[in-house]
Specification:
The complex is a heterodimer of chains A (56) and B (411).
Chain A lengths: L1 E3 L9 H5 L5 E4 L2 E4 L8 H5 L5 E3 L2
Antiparallel strand pairs in A: 1-4, 2-3
Chain B lengths: L20 E7 L3 H12 L4 E4 L14 E2 L1 H5 L9 E4 L2 E5 L5 E5 H4 L5 E3 L1 H14 L3 E3 L2 E9 L2 E9 L2 E12 L7 H4 L11 E10 L7 E5 L9 E6 L4 E8 L10 H12 L4 E11 L8 E2 L2 E3 L15 H20 L5 H29 L4 H10 L10 H11 L8 H4 L1
Parallel strand pairs in B: 1-2, 1-11, 2-8, 5-13, 11-18
Antiparallel strand pairs in B: 3-7, 4-7, 5-6, 9-10, 10-11, 12-15, 12-16, 13-14, 14-15, 17-18
Helix pairs in contact in B: 1-4, 1-7, 7-8
The chains are: A alpha+beta (56), B alpha/beta (411).
């Protein structure tokens, strides 16, 4: 699964824009990931601050 | 007594109320959304602009540099939202060679360094004064589609869900845009099509307060660049963005930035951290649908080479607002009618972004040796006599092998 570290996240929305299935949403100051997530990890690669991890 | 509202749309008693139906609903209150809303309201339309954040202009996700002449087309410069005025740029090659560019040729990314928190609010205020309704802490959760046409949005405010109907929905919802996707336009960026960046506002440091600095090289910002934009006499936005898929844990923007700031400004104090992503893909293939227009970062209109997007967003907003006024007057909000927006936009900016994309695609492949060589070849050019395209032509002439793929675009 995808884990977003809320203490690191700068809620910039970069991850939202690259999600191929539209599973990520930026709500005001936090990120929500829906069940549509395929764990492709693209969001983790583009995160400027390293707040996203794919946990296998 | 003179009625100050004369000639303006009736907006009495509308502070907290919202209509169930508007001519235009604008999603997102950044520069693209605010200019669209203002233009549409000035054209006599009933406009609502919503912003999901509780404060317009915050958090900032921007290096805040804009070119003076392009900005002045939209708004009279005001010291309330200008942090610094810059007269030129300095480009620093990987080997430390520095080249100075004067204001008129260094192009789109110098002029003013803004205070976006204030600037965005002023633009939203102008939209409101033109007659637009504004709602903050209000997030779009979907679009209403009927007979293939976008007919409005669903939104949420303080836990309350509601529908807002509109003839035209404007998606000005930034890099994380959902409006386009909901309406059937694929706005997904590939990892290589987004530059992700980090920035510190560093204070109590020695800087040139009228120069923007750009550092190139694999140690500082591989496949991107690092900027130092003055924010005052002793403070600057120091940030970097990287654009290709090399963002393993060692190459995170935040890690690279920390390394640079520790080395260059060891005694500086960081009073703000900014992170963000910028589309460097070139514009969307399609920016309109039946009842829908996308503007700004939501339409990937930022410059792929520089990452600059404020002016592009404002220009697009102006066109979108004007087209919305005409389309609604003609009672035709079909994709074919709204296509006028895209046609005008592409005629004005398409070529420029196409060039920027080609240069960027070549730039990200360059080694430090290539970059050093490039900067050295412009060392002796008399900058007072060339503009930016002229400079690029000279650079290409002097580096024909390295830049062969760009020849057709500039010559």
């Amino acid at each position: 699964m995808i884990s977003v570290n809320r203490y690191k996240c700068g809620y910039c929305g970069a991850c939202v824009s690259v999600c191929p299935v539209g599973a990520i949403e930026l709500i005001e100051t936090w990120i929500e990931i829906s069940d549509d997530c395929t764990e492709c990890g693209t969001c983790a690669r583009v995160c400027p601050i390293g707040a996203i991890e794919v946990l296998k | 007594m003179r009625d100050l509202r004369k000639g303006l749309p009736d907006r009495r008693n509308r502070g907290f109320k919202m209509k169930a139906k508007y001519d235009v609903v604008v999603v997102g209150a950044g520069p693209a959304g605010a200019i669209t809303a203002k233009t549409a309201a000035e054209g006599g339309l009933d406009v609502l602009m919503i912003e999901k954040r509780q404060e317009i202009g915050d958090p900032v996700r921007c290096a805040e540099g804009v070119a003076k002449p392009q900005l002045k087309k939209h708004i009279e410069p005001d010291e309330r939202w200008i942090s610094a005025e810059v007269k030129g740029s300095r480009i620093i090659a990987p080997d430390g060679t520095a080249v100075e560019l004067l204001e008129d040729i260094s192009g789109a990314e110098v002029g003013y360094v803004l205070e976006r928190k204030v600037f965005d609010r002023v633009l939203a205020d102008e939209a409101a004064l033109a007659g637009a309704d504004v709602r903050v802490k209000t997030r779009a959760t979907g679009v209403i589609i009927e007979d293939g046409f976008v007919k409005g949005i669903t939104a949420t405010h303080l836990g309350e869900e509601f529908e807002i109907r509109a003839d035209i929905v404007i998606g000005a919802d930034g890099i994380e845009s959902k409006i386009g996707r909901w309406a059937g336009i694929d706005t997904t960026l590939a990892a290589s099509e987004i530059a992700s960046g980090a920035q510190f506002l560093v204070t109590d440091i020695e800087i040139d307060c009228d120069r923007c600095e750009f550092y190139l090289g694999s140690c500082v910002a591989p496949t991107g660049y690092l900027w130092v934009f003055p924010k005052g006499v002793r403070s600057a936005n120091v940030g970097l963005a990287i654009s290709e898929d090399i963002r393993d844990s060692g190459n995170r923007p935040i890690t690279l930035l920390r390394k640079f700031v520790e080395a260059h400004y060891p005694n500086g104090k960081i009073i703000e951290i900014v992170v963000g992503g910028v589309p460097v893909s070139g514009p969307l293939d399609r920016m309109v649908a039946d009842g829908l227009i996308l503007v700004g970062d939501a339409a990937h209109q930022s410059d792929p080479l520089t990452g600059g997007g404020i002016i592009n967003a404002m220009d697009a907003g102006k066109i979108a607002g004007e087209v919305a006024v005409r389309a609604i007057a003609e009672d035709d909000v079909s994709k074919a009618r709204l296509q006028e927006y895209e046609t005008i936009w592409r005629a004005q900016f398409g070529k420029k972004l196409e060039r920027s994309l080609a240069v960027k695609n070549r730039f990200v492949e360059m080694s430090d040796k290539d970059l050093n060589k490039l900067v050295h070849t412009v060392d002796d050019i008399d900058f007072s006599t060339v503009d930016l395209p002229g400079l690029l032509v000279k650079i290409i002439h002097r580096n024909p092998k390295m830049l062969f793929s760009l020849r057709k675009l500039f010559m």
